[in-house]
Amino acid sequence: MSLFRTLQNSPGVISIFTDARPVSAKVYQTLNKAYEKLNSEKDKFQLDVAENRMPTYDQYKSLVTNDKNKLVLDKCYPLLHDRELDIPQTLKQTGIHYSTIKGLGPNMFNEGEYSMIYEAFEALEKEKIRQSIFKAPLVVDWDHNVVANDVEGLKTLLKQYEDGLD
Fold first, then answer.
1. What is the pLDDT of residues 7-24, one digit of tens each?
2. Backbone region of residue 128 per phi and psi (left: phi > 0; alpha: psi in -120 to 50; beta: other values)
3. What pTM was computed for the model?
4. What is the pLDDT of residues 42-80, one digit of tens each?
5. Residue spans in the chain of domains classed CATH 3.40.30.10
6. In Gene Ontology terms, what is one molecular function of this protein (predicted)?
7. Phi first, then psi: what are they for 50, rounded to 5°?
């Protein structure tokens, strides 16, 4: 069997970036139930749980490919919003100021901006400070390049894996 054929038959990967908020817990529970149901007879997908983490820049950049994904990402990254935000002091100390990213809308951060945001997020998580840099949940179907941040979006994402189930 060739390597390509082996990879072709491997299950997809769905990641969930989650935290302790109730909305994250609800999305995680829904995804976990679907995982158990859809994988009971055949591995449809693997589940990757990223607790209290945000996507890396390369992961983020790979998701900003269509308008639907951009709308979901806009909800997960408050700094993309074109309005005044209460940015934590730790973020300000990293050198990011709202004026440098204001007006990006649902586009994307450049690598330097994302690096600073990522570092600030990590510092705030380490100090257990509730932050508004990245708002979980974010569910990512890497193979189909589809994202969701709520139960309804998750159900839409999972429909492609339900084909063939009775």
1. 566 788 999 999 988 999
2. left
3. 0.79
4. 788 999 999 999 999 999 999 988 889 988 998 998 877
5. 1-54+136-166
6. oxidoreductase activity
7. -115, 90
User: How are beta strands 12-18 and 45-51 bridged, if at all?
Assistant: parallel
Two tokens, residue 43: 């591995």
Q: Which residue has the tokens 């909305």?
A: 23
Structure tokens, 36: 């158990």
Beta strands across the sheet bearing 12-18: 45-51, 12-18, 138-141, 146-148
Nearest of 51, 75, 52 to residue 63 by alpha carbon: 75
What CATH class is the domain 1-54+136-166? alpha beta
Checking if the pLDDT of 88 tops 80, the result is no
Amino acid identity for residue 72 in this structure = V
User: What whole-number distance in Å separates Cα of residue 61 and Cα of residue 2?
Assistant: 31
Per-residue DSSP letter, 30:
H
Q: What angle do CA 110, 137, 49 make, to 5 degrees?
A: 95
Question: Crossing angle for the helix pair 22-38 and 151-162, nearest 10 degrees?
Answer: 10
